[in-house]
Amino acid sequence: GAVVSQHPSWVICKSGTSVKIECRSLDFQATTMFWYRQFPKKSLMLMATSNEGSKATYEQGVEKDKFLINHASLTLSTLTVTSAHPEDSSFYICSAHEGPEYFGPGTRLLVL
Amino acid sequence: ILNVEQSPQSLHVQEGDSTNFTCSFPSSNFYALHWYRWETAKSPEALFVMTLNGDEKKKGRISATLNTKEGYSYLYIKGSQPEDSATYLCALAPDKLIFGTGTRLQVFP
User: Fold this and answer.
1) Which residues contact B13 (CB under 8 A, 6 or more apart)?
2) Does the beta carbon of B43 lie under 8 angstroms from any beta carbon of chain A?
3) Which pLDDT score, from 0 to 100, does residue A5 have?
4) Low-confidence ranges of chain B (pLDDT < 50)
5) In this predicted structure, what is the pLDDT of residue A1?
6) pLDDT value for B69
7) What's the DSSP call for residue A24?
8) What angle do CA B50, B55, B56 make, to 5 degrees?
9) Residues 77-106, chain B: which have Cβ within 8 Å of A?
10) pLDDT given for residue B94 in this prediction
């Protein structure tokens, strides 16, 4: 099946710093990628839909100025958590469509 | 807001046992249901996409059924093996995936 990679797999940062997470489709092109977040014991929740060459579409309640999404090429989408705070600590995972939806392995973010 | 429920939350079985778990969802405006298998530190892996009421799909020892009229899908694992240990997620797909919280399966040798 298609492979989606994510980098980094985990990150620890200080409160107030910004963190960039990369999502790459390795063997296919994806005009659309998705960013999800999962809090402990909760389900994966869609944050935003990343569209190559245009603005991302954010789900209700997700701050677009806090979670910046850039989808500059057909194989790369980035999520930047700006001015991260402890409440942003979570598991972030991306996916891309290639028939079914293929997921990256996720990024665990801990903000101290 | 659509709600997708999975039960049980976790399950411990002995190697060789067969097991099953449930995904429940609103039966109105059904489009498709996805099942994923998610091993720790790996990417969720698509198992099945189910669209038709009465659908039954099989992949090796894993099979799934779908009842869209009553709003549930069952996932069955026959003769569980330790390598089946994972979290099994279902997701409802109207225009975007809405996930349940998953069933965490642990198979003991």
Assistant:
1) B19, B80, B105, B106, B107, B108
2) yes
3) 95
4) none
5) 67
6) 94
7) E
8) 100
9) 89, 91, 96-102
10) 76
* 3-state SS, one letter per residue, for chain B: CCCCEEECCEEEEECCCCEEEEEECCCCCCCCEEEEEECCCCCCEEEEEECCCCCEEEECCEEEEEECCCCEEEEEECCCCHHHCEEEEEEECCCCCEECCCEEEEEEC
Are the beta carbons of A1 and B45 separated by less than 8 Å? yes
Give the separation between CA B78 and CA A112, rounded to whole angstroms: 44
Inter-chain CB pairs, A–B, below 8 Å: 40
pLDDT of residue A9: 96
| Stretches in chain A below the pLDDT threshold 70 | 1
Comparing alpha-carbon positions, the chain B residue that sits nearest to A6 is B43
Nearest CA in chain B to A48: B96
SS3 call for A54: coil
pLDDT score, position A2: 84
